[in-house]
Amino acid sequence: MRLQGRYEFKAPREAVWRVLLDREALAKGMPGCQRLDEVGPDAYEATLRVGVASVKGVYTGRITITDTVPPERYRMIIEGSGAQGFLKGEGAITLVEADGRTVLTYDGEAQVGGLLAGIGQRMLGGVSKLLVRLFFHGMAKQLNLAEEDVAELEP
């Protein structure tokens, strides 16, 4: 499953960059995050409670940030599993500043297995977009931005 999109934040790129790499901000902004522990440089173990349709559960996994070029881009690798299935994914985040605003572009691939995969590609795509939207709006809150200060842009 491919995940890609763009968001605009009414904040300088440096501020958006800092929040996206701050463990506490990530834990507060990530939907369903129960735990996010740093286990090494740019590596975290996480526990999330997430539901997709009738498939709900607790998932544990690892998030690793690589290929970091501050404050422009990085890659994120995610692996997680729970009783309902597993997720493996990798994607790139790119930040571009224009007139005191930041345009964030994300592009990645995810593989889902187990009961999660059984709910259908169409539903998974919609739920994935919703979780991404909740995440970036959560990051906007960590930047002390109002709801209207973050916008999803056309890809």
Residue runs with pLDDT of under 50 for 5 or more positions: none
| Beta-strand share of residues | over 45%
* The first-level CATH class name: Alpha Beta
The named CATH superfamily: START domain
In the CATH hierarchy, the third-tier topology is known as Alpha-D-Glucose-1,6-Bisphosphate, Chain A, domain 4
Q: What is the terminal-to-terminal distance? A: 16 Å
Any guess at the CATH architecture?
2-Layer Sandwich
Summarize the main sheet. 8 strands, antiparallel
Rg value: 15 Å
Mean pLDDT: 91
What characteristic shape results from the CA principal axes?
globular
The topology string of helices and strands comes to EHHEEEEEEHE
Q: Based on helices, strands and strand pairing, what is the structural class?
A: alpha+beta
Strand order in space, largest sheet:
2-3-4-5-6-7-1-8
| Estimated helix fraction | 10-25%
Number of strands: 8
Task: Give a short synopsis of this structure.
With 155 residues, the chain is of the alpha+beta class. 24% of the residues lie in helices and 54% in strands.
Task: Jot down its keywords.
single chain, 155 residues, alpha+beta, Alpha-D-Glucose-1,6-Bisphosphate, Chain A, domain 4, eight-stranded antiparallel β-sheet
Any chance you could write out the topology, listing elements then pairs?
Blueprint: E1 2-9, H1 13-20, H2 23-29, E2 33-40, E3 43-52, E4 55-69, E5 73-82, E6 85-98, E7 101-114, H3 121-142, E8 150-153
Antiparallel strand pairs: 1-7, 1-8, 2-3, 3-4, 4-5, 5-6, 6-7
